[in-house]
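Q: Hi! First time doing this. I have a protein sequence and I read that you can turn it into a structure. Is that right? Here it is:
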Amino acid sequence: MLSQTTNAATQKISPDLPLTAKQAQLVQHILAFTARHLTTAGPAVFALYGDAGTGKSVVLAHLFNQIQVAARTQDASPFAHTENYFLVNHPEILKVYREIAGEHPHLLKKDFQRPTSLINQMAKDTVHPDVLVIDEAHLLLSQADHYNNFYGDNQLQSLLTTAKVIIVVFDETQVLRMKSFWTEARLEKLIAPYPHETYRLTHQFRMQASDKLVRWINDFTHQHLHPLPTDVGANYDLRVFDDAEQMRQAVVRRNQEVGLSRIVSTSGYPSTLDGGKHYITEGEFHLPWDQYNYTSTPWAELPQTINEVGSIYTCQGFDLNYVGIILGPPVSLDEHDHLAIHLDRYTDVEAFKKRADLTDPTELVHIKQQLILNSINVLMKRGVKGLYLYAHDARLRHYLQQRAL
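A: Yes, that's right. Below is the predicted 3D structure, encoded as structure tokens:
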């Protein structure tokens, strides 16, 4: 059945996808903002806020397609002959956008870039961007990162030095690493000196879940634990498992039925970037972490990845039909039924690398705990049709089971 879902990811953010009336109005508003500031001095910024699944990416896809059609075909347009790029700092999502480009006559694969690549081209004076559209701007680096060949202090600041208009999509609840640590307050402080507008999307488009379940996820990932709602949506399947292997089998069945169903996990299990396989074991459950995907196909669309465990780095920004989540050792329930986050059990060594501008010990503990909670938020909102849960911590597992009526 998986063949029926080939290119499913591209269909969910394609510029051919119909927009709601409000989304179409928003695209036109951003186009007008961009055209107005193309001829003014200094950069202008439009910030689009919204939680996971609120339709940010499809708005950007429509917006960028219209900009490029005008740039390449409409000599009377304010966008005529402008040089524009779409940036995303996530390799799996970049693959989806480049696949979309191959299906549209006025979108070129080279229009879609990683931020570091474009910044380095700007430094060599080989590109001169007019308009930049940035998806997942919360993944932009906010400090130097030699591993990614970025030697500046902040990627957005570097991009502002050249571009005339920048449109960013931003969700602070999807910030996952210290090297890309952002908050709305930090973003707003950075863009305050420039002409700017903001807009917040609130309607949930991805998940066919009830508003009550979406609120429960948001509360859970801010350490506000309360019973799972009984009303999760007529077309949504929520299950809590006592056995991770049974959950895996349920996800495999869903994958056979409708495709794009995968097991994912939080950090907290052996994981090293050494090219080898590292396994997650929970009772009879025993599968390796996702392997680096060298193909042009997104990880979740590769048939063999039904036998791997996905991470935030392969799933962020990507829609699955059903997602089975393992809440690993860093997450537990204490004796007072409060959600506890254990930093010492987090095995993603890249997440907590030091940075010079964050030194207060109390603040650092809070930030690191929130990064872990953000990763859970990202994973829990991957499933369009269903969410399956298994918790490593027996107390948390039983708490969730007893209240999932």
